Task: inverse folding
C-alpha cells in the first residue's frame, strides 16, 4: 500500500521543488520551470497511484479477501447492509508537545483525500505546462513557478491533513500564495489592491477558522477527556450519541467554520474578493480561483461534515445557514455574471455560483453530490479559465474585455473554441457532460431530502448558468471580430485596467503576431486534457454504475455515513434540468441573434434600476469599502491620532524630562560625590601613607643594619622566652 | 673540655664585629668588622665540632673562610668604586637610596 501509506510525499515533493526553484531556478536553462513541471508531475503520478490503490482497497473490502472479511465484521456493529466500511489510512508523527498536549502532524487518506489529490495535482500539472507558454518572457518567471510549487504543496498539505490544526496551516499557506500570485504583476496598482482585498477578505473568514479549530479541540476533549485536533476523533465525538458534547458547542463550532467557508469559497456576502482576484495571471485564476483553493472551503465542509450536520441540524427539511448561504450565492453569483464584460470576471462569478451549489449541496445533506460537483467543476472551470487565457494570449492582444476586443474568434481559434464550448456545455449541465451528472445529483438529493426550495433555486441557477455561458460564448467567438488587428490601435486606457500582462512580454509578443491566431500546443494541450475530463468525468456516477459514489463515499464513523447515502438518479428531474438549461441557452442565443426585443434596460425604468444594481455588484463593494472600512478607519485614525498626540507624546515628554532630572541628580550626587570622591580619597590616602612611610627609608646602610640587628635580638629574645 | 670559654670569646668577637658594622663610618672598617663577626661564628663552629668530636664543624669553618675571602674581594671592589665616584669612603655619604 505504498501509495496510500506514503501519501505525505505528494505535498513534500512540490515543497522541495519550491525551495530548489527559489534557490537555483534563475541559473537553470528553463529558469526553474522544469523543476516545477517535473515535481508536480511526480506528485501527479503518486496521486494517481493513491487513487488506484484506494479503489483497490474499496473493492477488496467488498470482495471476499481476508481484509474485507475483517472489515465486514467490524462494520456489522453499526450497519445492517453487507458493505464493509473501508477505513481511512492514518499515519502521524508528533509535531510538538506542550503542557501535556501532544500535537501531531499526519495524513488521513480516504476517498475524499484521494479525489482532491488527483484534482489538485492534475490541474496543477496542466497549469504548470500551460504557464510555460503563457508566462514566457515574464520578468518574474522563476518566482512565478516557485510560488506555483509552494501553492501546490500547501493545497496538498491541506488535503492530506489528519487534524484541523494542520489543515489550518495549509489553509493559511494557500491564502498567502493566492495573495502573492494575484499580485504577481504588482507594479500596477489595481493588481496589488486586488491581492490585498483577496487576502483581507479571506482573512475575515479565517478568524472563523481559527476559532472553529480551537473549538474542535474542546469538542474532542468533552467527548473523550483528552483534547485533540484529530479529524477522525472529532467526527466520532460529534456523531457518537453517548458523548457528552453539548449541541451549543457544536453549533458555535459549525458557525465559526461556516464563516471560514464563506470567506475562502467566495460565498455571499464575502464573495467580493474573487472577481477582483482575476487581476492575477490567468493560469493562477484557473488553478487557485477555480479548481483548487476556492474549493478548500467546500473540502473543509466535507471533511468535518458531521459538525455541520449536527450543528446546523441538516436534513430535517428546515432552512439552515449552510444551505441558505449556498442558495443565495448560487443566484447572486449567476445574476452578476450577466452584466460583466470581462470574460474572466464572468467566469469568476460563475465560480462563485458553482461554489454556492457545492455549499448548498452540503447544506441539504448531499455530501457525495457536493464532492462530485467539486470534482467535475474543477475540470470544466479550469478548462474555461485556461480557454479565456488562450483567447487573451493569442486572440485579443491580452485583453479580457469581450465587448471591445473579442468576437468572431471561432474561425481564428478553432481548438480554443471547441474546448471552450465543451467546458461551457459541461458547466451549463447539458447531457451527457460532466456538469450534468454532478448538478443533477445535487438537485435530486435536495428534492429527496425535502428541500424543495433549494431544488427550485438549483434549477433557476442552472437556467442562468446556461444563459450567461451562452452570452460568453457568443460575445467571444461569434459575430464580428471587434478587436484591433494592429496592436498599436489598442486603447491603452482600457488595457491598463484589464490587461495585467507585463509590458515587456506584451510588446515582444505583439511584435511577432498582429492578428488573432490559434495558440500553440502548450496552451491547447491542457485545454484538451481538461475537456476530456469535462466530458467523461461525469460518467463515474452513471446511474446503476455509481462508481464515484461507491469508491469515494464518505468515511465517517459507523451510524453516520449511512445517513448520507445518496439517492438514485431521477430521470424526470434530469429531463427537467436539461430542458431548463437548454431553454437558457436557447433564449440567450436568440437574444444575441437579435430575435428577442433588445434594449429592455434602456426603456424600462425598473429593468434599468435592476441592471444598475447588478453593475454595481449589489453595492457590496461600496458597503465594504466606503461604509465599513471607512467607518472603522476614520474614527480609528482620529482616535489613534488623539492617543498619539496626547498620551504617547506626553508619556515621551515626561519620560524625557524625568530622565534628564534623574541624570542631573546622578551626576551631582552619585558621580561627582560618590564615585569621584571614592577614587580621589583612595589616591590621597595612598599618597599620604607613602609620605609617612618614606621617612624611614633613609638610604643609610648602617641604619638598615641596625634595624636588622635589633630585629634579630628581639626575635632571639622572644624565642628564648618562649622556650 | 671547656666549651663556655670558647663560646664567650666567640660572642665577644661577634659583638665587637656588630658594633664595628653599626658604628664605624669608614667602609673598609665596616668590612673588617664583618670579618670579626665571621671569625666569631667560625670559632663557634670549630668549638662545637671539637666538643662533639665531629669534623663537620671544621669543614663548615673552612667553607666560611673561603666564602668570606670571596665576599671581601667583592666588598673591597665595591668600596673602591664608591671611592672613585664619591671621593670618599664614608658610608654616611652613600645615601642615594634615601626615600
Result:
Amino acid at each position: 500500500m505504498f501509495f496510500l501509506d506514503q501519501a505525505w510525499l505528494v505535498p513534500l515533493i512540490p515543497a522541495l521543488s519550491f525551495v530548489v526553484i527559489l534557490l537555483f531556478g534563475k541559473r537553470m536553462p528553463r529558469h526553474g520551470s522544469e523543476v516545477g513541471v517535473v515535481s508536480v508531475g511526480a506528485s501527479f503520478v503518486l496521486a494517481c497511484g493513491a487513487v488506484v490503490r484506494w479503489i483497490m482497497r474499496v473493492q477488496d473490502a467488498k470482495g471476499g479477501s481476508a481484509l474485507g472479511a475483517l472489515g465486514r465484521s467490524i462494520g456489522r456493529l453499526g450497519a445492517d447492509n453487507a458493505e464493509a466500511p473501508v477505513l481511512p489510512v492514518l499515519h502521524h508523527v508528533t509535531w510538538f508537545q506542550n503542557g501535556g498536549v501532544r500535537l501531531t502532524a499526519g495524513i488521513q487518506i480516504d476517498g475524499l483525500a484521494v479525489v482532491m489529490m488527483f484534482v489538485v495535482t492534475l490541474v496543477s500539472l496542466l497549469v504548470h505546462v500551460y504557464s510555460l507558454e503563457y508566462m514566457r518572457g515574464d520578468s518574474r518567471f522563476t518566482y512565478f513557478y516557485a510560488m506555483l510549487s509552494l501553492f501546490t504543496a500547501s493545497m496538498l498539505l491541506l488535503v492530506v491533513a489528519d487534524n484541523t490544526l494542520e489543515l489550518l496551516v495549509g489553509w493559511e499557506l494557500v491564502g498567502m500564495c493566492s495573495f502573492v500570485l494575484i499580485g504577481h504583476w504588482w507594479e500596477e496598482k489595481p493588481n496589488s489592491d486586488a491581492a490585498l482585498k483577496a487576502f483581507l477578505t479571506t482573512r475575515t473568514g479565517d478568524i472563523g477558522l481559527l476559532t472553529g479549530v480551537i473549538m474542535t479541540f474542546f469538542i474532542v476533549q468533552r467527548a473523550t477527556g483528552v483534547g485533540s485536533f484529530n479529524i477522525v476523533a472529532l467526527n466520532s465525538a460529534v456523531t457518537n450519541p453517548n458523548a457528552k458534547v453539548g449541541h451549543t458547542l457544536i453549533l458555535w463550532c459549525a458557525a465559526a467554520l461556516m464563516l471560514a467557508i464563506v470567506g475562502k469559497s467566495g460565498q455571499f456576502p464575502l464573495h467580493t474578493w474573487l472577481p477582483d482576484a482575476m487581476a492575477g495571471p490567468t493560469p493562477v485564476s484557473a488553478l487557485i480561483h477555480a479548481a483548487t483553493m476556492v474549493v478548500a472551503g467546500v473540502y473543509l465542509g466535507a471533511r468535518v461534515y458531521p459538525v455541520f450536520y449536527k450543528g446546523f441540524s441538516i436534513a430535517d427539511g428546515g432552512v439552515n445557514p449552510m444551505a441558505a448561504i449556498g442558495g443565495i450565492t448560487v443566484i447572486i453569483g449567476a445574476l452578476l455574471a450577466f452584466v460583466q464584460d470581462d470574460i474572466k470576471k464572468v467566469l469568476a462569478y460563475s465560480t462563485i455560483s458553482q461554489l454556492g451549489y457545492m455549499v448548498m449541496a452540503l447544506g441539504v445533506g448531499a455530501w457525495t453530490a457536493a464532492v462530485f460537483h467539486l470534482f467535475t467543476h474543477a475540470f470544466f472551470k479550469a478548462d474555461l479559465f485556461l480557454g479565456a487565457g488562450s483567447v487573451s494570449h493569442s486572440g485579443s492582444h491580452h485583453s479580457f474585455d469581450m465587448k471591445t476586443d473579442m468576437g468572431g474568434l471561432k474561425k481564428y481559434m478553432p481548438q480554443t473554441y471547441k474546448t471552450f464550448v465543451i467546458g461551457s456545455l459541461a458547466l451549463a449541465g447539458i447531457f451527457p457532460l460532466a456538469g450534468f451528472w454532478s448538478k443533477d445529483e445535487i438537485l435530486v438529493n435536495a428534492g429527496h431530502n425535502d428541500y424543495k426550495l433549494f431544488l427550485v433555486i438549483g434549477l433557476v441557477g442552472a437556467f442562468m448558468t446556461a444563459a450567461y455561458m451562452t452570452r460568453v460564448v457568443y460575445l467571444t467567438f461569434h459575430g464580428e471580430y471587434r478587436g484591433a488587428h494592429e496592436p498599436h490601435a489598442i486603447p491603452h486606457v482600457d488595457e491598463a485596467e484589464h490587461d495585467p500582462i507585463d509590458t515587456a512580454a506584451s510588446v515582444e509578443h505583439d511584435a511577432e503576431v498582429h492578428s488573432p491566431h490559434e495558440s500553440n500546443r502548450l496552451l491547447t494541450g491542457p485545454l484538451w486534457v481538461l475537456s476530456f475530463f469535462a466530458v467523461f468525468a461525469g460518467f463515474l456516477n452513471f446511474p446503476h454504475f455509481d462508481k464515484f459514489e461507491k469508491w469515494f463515499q464518505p468515511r465517517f464513523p459507523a451510524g453516520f455515513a449511512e445517513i448520507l447515502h445518496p439517492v438514485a438518479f431521477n430521470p424526470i428531474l434530469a429531463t427537467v434540468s436539461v430542458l431548463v438549461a437548454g431553454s437558457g441557452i436557447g433564449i440567450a442565443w436568440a437574444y444575441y441573434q437579435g430575435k428577442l426585443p433588445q434594449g429592455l434596460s434602456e426603456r424600462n425604468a425598473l429593468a434599468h434600476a435592476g441592471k444598475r444594481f447588478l453593475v454595481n455588484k449589489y453595492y457590496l463593494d461600496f458597503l465594504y469599502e466606503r461604509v465599513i472600512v471607512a467607518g472603522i478607519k476614520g474614527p480609528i485614525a482620529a482616535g489613534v491620532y488623539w492617543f498619539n498626540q496626547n498620551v504617547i507624546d506626553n508619556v515621551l515628554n515626561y519620560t524625557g524630562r524625568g530622565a534628564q532630572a534623574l541624570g542631573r541628580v546622578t551626576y551631582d550626587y552619585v558621580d561627582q560625590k560618590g564615585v569621584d570622591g571614592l577614587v580621589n580619597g583612595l589616591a590621597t590616602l595612598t599618597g599620604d601613607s607613602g609620605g609617612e612611610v618614606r621617612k624611614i627609608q633613609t638610604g643609610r646602610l648602617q641604619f638598615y643594619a641596625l634595624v636588622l640587628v635589633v630585629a634579630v635580638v628581639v626575635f632571639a629574645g622572644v624565642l628564648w622566652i618562649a622556650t | 673540655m671547656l666549651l663556655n670559654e670558647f663560646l664567650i670569646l666567640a660572642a665577644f668577637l661577634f659583638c665587637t664585629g656588630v658594633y664595628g658594622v653599626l658604628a664605624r663610618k669608614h667602609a673598609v672598617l665596616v668590612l673588617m668588622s664583618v670579618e670579626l663577626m665571621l671569625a666569631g661564628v667560625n670559632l663557634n663552629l670549630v668549638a662545637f665540632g671539637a666538643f662533639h668530636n665531629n669534623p663537620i664543624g671544621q669543614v663548615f669553618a673552612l667553607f666560611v673562610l673561603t666564602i668570606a675571602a670571596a665576599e671581601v674581594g667583592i666588598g673591597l671592589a665595591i668600596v673602591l668604586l664608591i671611592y672613585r665616584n664619591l671621593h670618599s669612603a664614608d658610608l654616611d655619604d652613600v645615601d642615594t637610596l634615601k626615600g
